[in-house]
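Our preliminary data section would be incomplete without showing what the modeling component actually yields. Below, a chain of 290 amino acids is followed by its predicted structure, encoded as tokens that our downstream tools consume directly.
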Amino acid sequence: MNIGELLVELVLAGLITLAALFFPAYSMGLLGFGLSTDALAVAIALGFALGVIIDRSTDTILEGWLGLVRLKFAEKVTAERNALVGSGLVQDVFPEDWLRIQILVNGSEAAVRAMEALRTRIRVARNMVVLTPVLTVSAIIGGWPPDTRKQMANAEAAVLFPLFELVALISAVVIARWWLKAPRTSTPAATVPSRASWLASAVTAWFGLHLLAAAAAIVFSDDQTTAVGATAAGFLLTALAALAWERMTVSFMALLWNHSRFTDPKKLAAHMSSGSRSTQVPSTSIQEIS
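Predicted structure:
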């Protein structure tokens, strides 16, 4: 992926986030946006800065799920791995970083392009998983009837929703980084306490907070049926984005694994067997989290 594509991706993610955060205040006439050159330049700059934050935050929030997907893939290729190194101890049952470097250093141009294309799609899907709930709640609040808008203080409309999103984002990141740590393929599950699972994860906390926010916003909605429908549609799109993210992540891991397995299996076997830290295939932990 070239730097231009990455910049566009980050700016778009940031602009979508800005639109979601301030749409309620805009719909209530509290904010106005001009189309001057200076305004567009500021918007793009803010979009880029916010896009970088969102990209890193979404990566952290989905870290637990990524660890689970990696463990399940490691279990899936157990027979292939055993054919390379036997059924004993290995350094890492799925050395993803090393496999990625092998494609960048030794892979063909087509392999590198395929890897980068999958990484781009994974990032887009990952951002959709996190941002779609924000857009859903923003749309519901922005659709409040005029009489409700008059009852709400300007500060509540302009500040509380972005503030809620900031607190929710920080909370989800803290949960992912310091509480529900992601499982790893390089360390036996028995020696590293990890409470991460599909439900006990930062993603669940993120979804739960926005489901509560959507429920609160529906209370003030003039057409609650439409608001409920919008909430259902938003979370359905989120679920589809999560499914797409999971499928593309598995495809990405399969590309990394199969490239090294077919192009240089001896080098892959030597790397997995080397080092002082060795771990068994975490099949037990995978059965527990499935």
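Residues 3-289 form one domain. DSSP finds twelve helices and no strands in the chain. Preliminary results of this kind motivate Aim 1 of the renewal.
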